[in-house]
Design the sequence.
């Protein structure tokens, strides 16, 4: 791993998921480094594989008036994928990129509940998913404080993707409208790359 913080986060995630990562994509880029770990379902005993960033929590994000009570200044991103896919290089790269965004200098910001990042095009072949959507995990064990860095709690932030039409609905009616769509359509926990738009 890159440094002592990354090694610490890897140990904490290993404790939380009760398994060591099967694969780690190590970020060698300059600036705020964010690596990504893949935990297979076979090791965690979960119905899906799990991706989690390592290193986003190295620094505190700059929270502003948009922050909710559940947003934390330090977080790591989490995504759930079909275990049969194997280690998803493309999604790991996306999570590492998203994890670096709050620490860009112009200006520094934060990622939290209900945030969206339009990417301008579908992210996968034969897919309508164009926009990153971050919310608190719906998977019960992944909710709340997972570990601490000093006195700061570190939470996981579920990172999934939505379509252009769903993004337009979110802008018009807010984050809860997307959650209502997820519930009405039995939105899967694991990323469904080729799912239809719910709008």
Sequence:
């Amino acid at each position: 791993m890159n440094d002592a913080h990354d090694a610490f986060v890897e140990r904490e995630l290993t404790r939380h998921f009760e398994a060591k990562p099967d694969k780690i994509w190590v970020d060698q880029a300059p600036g705020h480094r964010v690596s990504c770990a893949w935990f297979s379902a076979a090791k965690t005993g979960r119905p899906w594989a799990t991706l989690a960033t390592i290193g986003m929590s190295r620094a505190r994000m700059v929270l502003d008036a948009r922050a909710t009570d559940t947003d934390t200044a330090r977080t790591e991103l989490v995504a759930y994928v079909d275990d049969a896919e194997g280690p998803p290089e493309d999604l790991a790269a996306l999570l590492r990129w998203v994890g670096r965004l709050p620490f860009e200098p112009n200006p520094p910001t934060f990622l939290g509940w209900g945030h969206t990042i339009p990417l301008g095009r579908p992210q996968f072949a034969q897919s309508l998913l164009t926009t990153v959507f971050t919310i608190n995990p719906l998977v019960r064990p992944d909710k709340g404080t997972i570990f601490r860095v000093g006195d700061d709690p570190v939470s996981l932030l579920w990172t999934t993707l939505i379509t252009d039409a769903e993004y337009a609905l979110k802008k018009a009616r807010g984050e809860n409208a997307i959650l209502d769509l997820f519930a009405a359509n039995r939105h899967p926990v694991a990323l469904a790359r080729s799912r239809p738009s719910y709008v």
Summary: Residues 4-17 form the longest helix (14 residues). The helical segments are 4-17, 41-44, 89-100, 164-173, 175-184. The chain has one domain: 4-184. The two ends are 42 Å apart (CA to CA).
